[in-house]
């Protein structure tokens, strides 16, 4: 154990990460009410605006070396406060489409001080068992993103404004808890400056390229899947009018089981390596995607099983690809490399989200449009298989 590491550190960090990331999909959980009040369809733009903001936030943090200049717990709580305010800004400002989208963009920008900073805190305190800690942290991210759907499913009568206030209070509480309870590692004497030259390293170093490309393939599928889980459930109900269930609770279930993929993946990675765990989970999620139209006519139990397996595997590879990128990044440019890989990955999600949104407009209630998500696992496996599938490598 690292000297002076509090025994409760991981519990507090996981809870704070969960609480802060409840902001991420809070807009999606009330999208139907927002669209009804606005009188127009926002579609995938609610999610894409958050993704754009997150990309902007991570790049600004890297360019100005914010994590090296501000204590991690302080940066986390500041980001939680500003993210909470951005989340409820649409309840205060004039209510229109530009304000809604700018609010989601700013929420995403401040999330850049929550999710990556949580991983930085874990990296500061954990050594050989970082893959396990990463599994818990990304699992907390999964719980945070699923929670708004649970809250919405249990509270049909809540106005969307009250709902956003509750989510913001949860995020702020998590930030304050981390700030009060967790110690900080000293700031480095020299700031690591962001370097665009790190982009070249991503493509030149074979192991780093394999890890980054695998992550890119994973990201093509992940956020589009999460954003459109309600649409998948509604499509199933369209073909099975005799069946009835709460779509919000079902969506929560599919997203939240991803915690198992992250947690178990982290434990297995300690034995067989992060690379193999990531490849297996990427393969399983790709197979689930291919089987979706085939299982669309199946019983509720079989279809739900497919969705839950997909929910477990679609995110379970995320902490392992992140661990691999961190491991193979050049030490002198590690911060820039991780930032660029993360930013490119989130930029990719915007294209897949908007593509699914476009296809849903053209072909509503057609499961086959989700086959485009298979491109992510195919690319990820193709680009990283040779480096990480070999039995000689416990990476």
UniProtKB/TrEMBL annotation:
UniProt keyword Glycosyltransferase, yes or no:
no
Which residues, if any, are the signal sequence? none
List, alphabetically, the Pfam families matched: MFS_1
Coiled-coil spans are none
Q: Where is the Major facilitator superfamily (MFS) profile domain?
A: 1-392
Q: Where do the TM regions start and end? A: 42-63, 75-95, 101-121, 133-151, 163-182, 212-233, 245-270, 277-295, 301-325, 337-356, 368-385
**Which keywords does this Swiss-Prot/TrEMBL entry list?**
Membrane, Transmembrane, Transmembrane helix
**SUPFAM superfamilies referenced in this protein's UniProt entry, alphabetically:** MFS general substrate transporter
InterPro entries recorded: MFS (IPR011701), MFS_dom (IPR020846), MFS_trans_sf (IPR036259)
Name listed for the protein in its UniProt record? Major facilitator superfamily MFS_1
């Amino acid at each position: 154990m690292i000297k002076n590491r509090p025994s409760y550190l991981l519990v507090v960090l996981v809870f704070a990460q969960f609480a802060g990331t409840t902001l991420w999909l809070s807009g999606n959980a009330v999208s139907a009410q927002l669209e009804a009040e606005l009188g127009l369809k926002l579609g995938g733009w609610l999610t894409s605006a958050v993704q754009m903001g997150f990309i902007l936030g991570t790049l600004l943090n890297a360019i100005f070396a914010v994590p090296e200049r501000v204590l991690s717990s302080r940066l986390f709580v500041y980001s939680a406060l500003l993210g909470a305010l951005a989340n409820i800004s649409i309840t205060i400002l004039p209510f229109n489409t530009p304000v809604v989208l700018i609010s989601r963009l700013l929420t995403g920008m401040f999330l850049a001080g929550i999710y990556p900073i949580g991983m930085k805190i874990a990296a500061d305190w954990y050594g050989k068992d970082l893959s396990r800690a990463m599994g818990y942290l990304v699992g907390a991210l999964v719980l945070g993103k699923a929670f708004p759907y649970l809250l919405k499913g249990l509270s049909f009568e809540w106005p969307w404004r009250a709902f956003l206030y509750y989510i913001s209070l949860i995020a702020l509480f998590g930030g304050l808890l981390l700030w009060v309870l967790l110690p900080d590692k000293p700031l480095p004497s020299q700031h690591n400056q962001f370097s665009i030259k790190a982009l070249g390293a991503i493509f030149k170093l074979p192991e780093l390229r394999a890890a980054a490309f695998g992550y890119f393939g994973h990201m093509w599928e992940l956020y589009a899947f999460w954003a459109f889980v309600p649409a998948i459930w509604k499509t199933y109900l369209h073909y099975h009018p005799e069946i009835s269930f709460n779509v919000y609770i079902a969506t929560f279930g599919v997203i939240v089981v991803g915690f198992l993929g992250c947690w178990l993946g982290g434990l297995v990675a300690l034995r067989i390596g992060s690379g193999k765990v990531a490849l297996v989970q990427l393969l399983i999620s790709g197979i689930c995607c291919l089987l979706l139209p085939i299982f669309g006519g199946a019983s509720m139990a079989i279809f739900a099983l497919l969705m839950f397996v997909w929910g477990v595997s679609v995110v379970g590879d995320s902490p392992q690809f992140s661990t691999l990128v961190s491991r193979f990044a050049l030490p002198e440019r590690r911060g820039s490399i991780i930032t660029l890989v993360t930013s490119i990955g989130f930029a990719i999600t915007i294209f897949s989200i908007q593509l699914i949104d476009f296809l849903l407009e053209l072909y509503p209630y057609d499961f086959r449009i989700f086959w485009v998500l298979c491109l992510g696992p195919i690319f990820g496996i193709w680009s990283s298989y040779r480096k990480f599938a070999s039995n000689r490598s416990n990476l």
